[in-house]
Here is the input.
Amino acid sequence: MPRWPLFGAKPCRFTGSSHPCPLWSARHADSHQAVQSLSAKNTGGIFAWNEINVSTQNYSNVSLSIYYKDSNNFEVGEFLSVDWYNGTTWINEVNVSNVATYTLFNQTLSTNAANNSNFKIRLGCKNNAANEFCYWDNVQITGQTSTCTYSGSGNWLVSCSDNCLITSNVNLLGNNISITGTGTFSTTANITNFKQLFIAGTSSTNRCQVYCSGGGCFK
Ligand SMILES: [Ca+2]
Ligand SMILES: [Ca+2]
Here is the structure.
């Protein structure tokens, strides 16, 4: 499966229109790459957050890549953080103090980062002096296109591990639908006009759980 940028196509390097980050504007010349970075200084001793919502709908295996560092003069209780939101709670990935050189965080996030219109990331800084900075650079979120959308022709092969939630009616045009692997497949919409429906887990304990709700189902 190809991997596509969901945010920060180039990636986001905080410099002009060639590496745009439209929602974030606190720029600083201490940069990992391409002249400027995102920065935060003297947040008054409380966490200040730069936050964005990036829908990961129809994407699986969502990864976050970001470089970070600080001004290396933080006192006890002062931090730079990187969190992401799974729709219910914030999950902390980076929580550091006194990282003097740009350091890469690059990980595939857990499955509830995938196919999630409420997915967010936030970059936090807590310090209390004008010479105390947090810096972030080269922000990128990537994912693989999931199997949750029917192409409109041929059979529909769904990976159950994509944890699809189908909310718009799907007409299979007389083709087959197979849902295989381990995970969940849920639909609140109608899936119609299919020839065969095939559902299979990978073993008796690793099942694909299929749910119909809100009146929608296979019809
Ligand atoms: Ca930069
Ligand atoms: Ca301080």
